[in-house]
């Protein structure tokens, strides 16, 4: 652990450590410039209303096209962005870009689509985050009513009176509020009561071993049932197989997202999906 490592300071001077520290520093520097060099991009993963499998929303997922390393996963650079504080400007860019894309889809006369945007715990803890979000929407001229913010449970480790107030303000703007990775964090059921949530996203770790794993089957079934009783919509994440889909369908899961239906796609591919759906018979 860190403490025992601290007593054995020589550990920090192994060539391996120096290389890793150097690699991290290089990545951090590159990330600082990624925004101005326009290396960030949003992909969009479709969310489908079931059972008819109608495209009703997309989750915006940020990608970094590093000049030498190629595409770097957000699982790698979002934590780095959080440690360095760059998450605030990256988060701003993501929200602006999602608004710009929504405006473009609306201007093209395509059927309405809800865009879900991931919000890091650190963005959420910024003073007057809700006021900031209101300003971004005002500047971009799109209505918040076709947007949803996804906040992970771990972001809510100690939900305070301020958290409740932020949620209430965001909800008042007309934004949907989804609890991401539901079941993996520290939340207690009382958050479901205290926060004005609109959706729960069943984490893909509970979907992966459906329908065979009895614990996951029980957790997924219970989540769907409690959400229904609380008037919340459920999105199942990471649906990869027909057997998973059918299990969730039998339990009236209203919205699904996963590789079975589609991977995250560039905006142009979403435009095509929307256009073909607009022309399909109902
Ligand atoms: P998340 O919000 O839980 O997003 C879902 C992740 O699951 C995405 O990974 C998506 O590509 C992946 N996924 C979707 N369907 C399937 C499936 O059927 N099977 C499997 N194995 N995976 C599936 P991605 O794009 O690598 O993003 C990873 C995480 O990075 C996200 O998890 C989110 O926490 C974070 N992230 C992504 N974009 C942003 C962003 O703009 N802002 C912030 N703060 N975090 C972001
Ligand atoms: Mg998410
Ligand atoms: Mg998730
Ligand atoms: Mg996740």
Automatic annotation (TrEMBL):
Residues annotated as signal peptide: none
UniProt record, GO biological process: cellular response to nitric oxide; signal transduction
Residue ranges constituting the EAL domain according to the UniProt record: 24-278
Highest taxon in the source lineage: Bacteria
Main location: membrane
Example of a GO cellular component annotation carried by this entry: plasma membrane
Record GO terms (molecular function): cyclic-guanylate-specific phosphodiesterase activity
Keywords: Cell membrane, Membrane, Transmembrane, Transmembrane helix
Cell compartment(s), UniProt: Cell membrane
Protein name: EAL domain-containing protein
Organism: Zoogloea dura
Full protein segment contained here: 825 to 1106 of 1106
């Amino acid at each position: 652990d860190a403490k025992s490592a601290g007593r054995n300071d020589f550990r920090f001077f192994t060539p391996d450590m120096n290389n890793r520290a150097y690699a991290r520093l290089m990545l951090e520097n590159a990330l600082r410039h990624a925004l101005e060099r326009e290396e960030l991009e949003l992909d969009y993963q479709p969310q489908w209303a079931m059972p008819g499998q109608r495209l009703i929303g997309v989750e915006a997922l940020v990608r970094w096209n590093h000049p030498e390393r190629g595409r770097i996963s957000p699982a790698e650079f979002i934590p780095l962005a959080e440690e360095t504080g760059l998450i605030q400007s990256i988060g701003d860019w993501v929200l602006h870009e999602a608004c710009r894309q929504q405006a473009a889809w609306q201007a093209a006369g395509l059927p309405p689509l809800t865009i879900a945007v991931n919000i890091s715990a650190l963005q959420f803890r910024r003073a007057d985050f809700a006021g900031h979000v209101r300003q971004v929407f005002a500047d971009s001229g799109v209505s918040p009513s076709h947007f949803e913010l996804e906040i992970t449970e771990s972001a809510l480790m100690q939900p305070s009176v301020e958290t409740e107030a932020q949620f209430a303000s965001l909800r008042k703007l007309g934004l949907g509020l989804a609890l991401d990775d539901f079941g993996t964090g520290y939340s207690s059921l009382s958050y479901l009561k205290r926060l004005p949530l609109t959706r729960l996203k069943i984490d893909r770790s509970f979907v992966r071993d459906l329908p065979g794993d009895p614990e996951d089957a029980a957790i997924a079934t219970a989540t769907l049932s409690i959400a229904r009783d609380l008037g919340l919509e459920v999105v199942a994440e990471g649906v990869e197989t027909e057997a998973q889909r059918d299990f969730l369908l039998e339990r009236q899961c209203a919205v699904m997202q996963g590789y079975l239906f589609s991977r995250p796609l560039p905006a142009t591919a979403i435009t095509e999906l929307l256009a073909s759906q607009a022309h399909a018979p109902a």
